[in-house]
Amino acid sequence: MEPFDLRRYRAEQYEALLERPLDVLVVGGGIVGAGIARDAAMRGLRVGLVEQHDLAFGTSSRSSRLLHGGLRYLAQGRIILVYQASREKLVLRRIAPHLVQPLAFVFPAYRGKSWPLWQLRLGVKLYDLLCSGNNFGPSEYLSIEKTLDCLPGLASAGLTGAVRYYDALTSDARLVIDTHLSAARHGAVICNYTRLETAEPTAAGWQCSLCDVLSGTQHQVLARTVVNATGPWAQSLRPSRVRLRLTKGVHLIIDRRRLPVADAVVMTEDRRILFAIPWLDRVILGTTDTDYHGAPEAVRAKAEDVDYVLGLVNRFFPAVGLGPADVLSTWAGLRALVGGQSGQPSDITRAHR
Fold first, then answer.
1. Residue 316 belongs to what H/E stretch?
2. DSSP string of 122-144?
3. What is residue 343's predicted lDDT score, i.e. its pLDDT?
4. 210 φ/ψ angles, rounded to the nearest 5 degrees
5. pLDDT at residue number 69
6. How far apart are CA 249 and CA 335, in angstroms?
7. If residue 208 lies in a helix (H) or strand (E), which one and from where to where?
8. What pLDDT shows up at residue 133?
9. Can you list the residues of the chain whose pLDDT is less than 70?
10. What is the per-residue pLDDT for 70?
11. CB burial string 259-271: b at 16+ within 10 A, e below
12. Are 133 and 87 in contact (CB under 8 A)?
């Protein structure tokens, strides 16, 4: 077998991209861009996709790795959003079962807190209905005793019980890569490390200037339509008039022996939700939701983010006593929310516009 020739491969990709005008040029190689490219290519359109970094460089590889409808969004009355997300996770189970690992979630309730048990019991049944009765498993009520058996070390003062419901764990970056591969199989041309410099409207379509980030070579391509799928970078892409509110989500990784949970755990502070997600011999803790004003490339987990997450986990599992030395790794990603909305970050709609 011949060694892989990166230079030749990229030359072939650019040749295919530039040989004739595109129906659609997608800018951004995350899950949104990959999904758009796949859908358009499956409809027979001539599709190109460019990404200035590597594929899944941004938010799409820095998520909670969950496929979920979102109980929090259900509590906010966003039933259509939850229905759509719930249906999509079932579609993904059908077309990519290797990326869908069903996972039980235990959501404990406490007296006098923002998530009363009666609301949770009603919510998870509605959650099952929004999956048309085909969720990964049926939800159930857990008594105080069963909750403590399920979650050893959980704080018991004021505990009124819990509910167990089902979502799924995925590999977020692998999901992006597989979606790109599917798009390419249907004829889309995918070019990473390729930056869109300008897009100028002409009578024939959009005249787009591209830069090969690895070599500095400039290219020109004509596209009937340009799709801005750059997530946190969307408002910096000319001539876009998109205005965003960026919020940061931080995750921590700890050894599972420090928090030996069999199911995922939902922990709350007021209406905010934080998960402890078992992942092989590790546990993922997250996420936060705070406003962010820096460059998208520079987002990082800061000491105050780590302290917040560990502090909340320690309130729910007081005997664990997690500290910064227990943190094996961190990552931080950005949510690209529609700008111009006031209120707490967690209250801002996640719907596309």
1. helix 303-316
2. HHHHHHHHHTTT-SSS--EEE-H
3. 58
4. -115, 150
5. 82
6. 7
7. strand 205-212
8. 84
9. 340-353
10. 81
11. bebebbbbbbeee
12. no
Strand pairing class (244-255; 329-338): antiparallel
Q: How far apart are CA 264 and CA 151, in angstroms?
A: 10
Asked whether the beta carbons of 89 and 128 are under 8 A apart, the reply is no
Token representation of residue 141 = 């009520």
Contacts within 8 Å (CB) and 24+ apart, 89-96: 89/167, 89/168, 90/131, 90/132, 90/134, 90/135, 92/67, 92/170, 92/175, 93/136, 93/168, 96/175, 96/178
Contact, 162 vs 142, CB < 8 A? yes
Which CATH entry fits the domain spanning 6-60+173-236: 3.30.750.24, 1.20.1070.10, 2.30.120.10, 3.50.50.60? Answer: 3.50.50.60
Predicted local distance difference test score (pLDDT) of residue 266:
97
- Rounded Cα distance between 351 and 353, Å, is 7
DSSP state of 289: -
Through-space distance between the first and last CA atoms of the chain, rounded to whole angstroms: 48
- What gap in Å lies between CA 50 and CA 104, rounded to an integer? 37
CATH 3.30.9.10 fits 85-168+244-347, yes or no: yes
